[in-house]
Amino acid sequence: MEIAEKKALLSETIAKINKTYEKKEAYLKELADDKATLEFLGEKELAGEPMPDYSNYTDYAEWKETVEKEISRSETTLENLETRVIEAEAYQYYIDNYTESVE
Q: pLDDT tens, 37-53?
């Protein structure tokens, strides 16, 4: 693969990473919503309130477990996104600085 091809491929990858990074605020909002939901469910459970009729869950523990998994996934997604941004920076450095003489 020629250098120009490598740089073009990396440029495409950087664009994809940047596009994903634009969704960071949505990921953060989803994470905040899930944490608020978990807190709300904990309060309802402590108060001894019955499960709502509209719930697909059998009890609060099951519901909370699902929300906790969502929180974990969101946190992992955000961590991975930060790693991808660092990779994009490295790719950009390569594009900006790599020349034939380096090979």
A: 999 999 999 999 999 98
The arithmetic mean of pLDDT across residues 23-40, rounded, is: 97
- Rounded (5°) CA angle 28-35-46: 175
Domain assignments of the chain as residue spans, ordered by start: 3-102
Range 45-64 burial, b when 16+ CB lie within 10 A, else e: eeeeeeeeeeeeeeebeebb
Token pair for 73: 């996934």
Give CA separation, 45 vs 57, 58, 63, in Å: 13, 13, 11
- Global confidence as pTM: 0.80
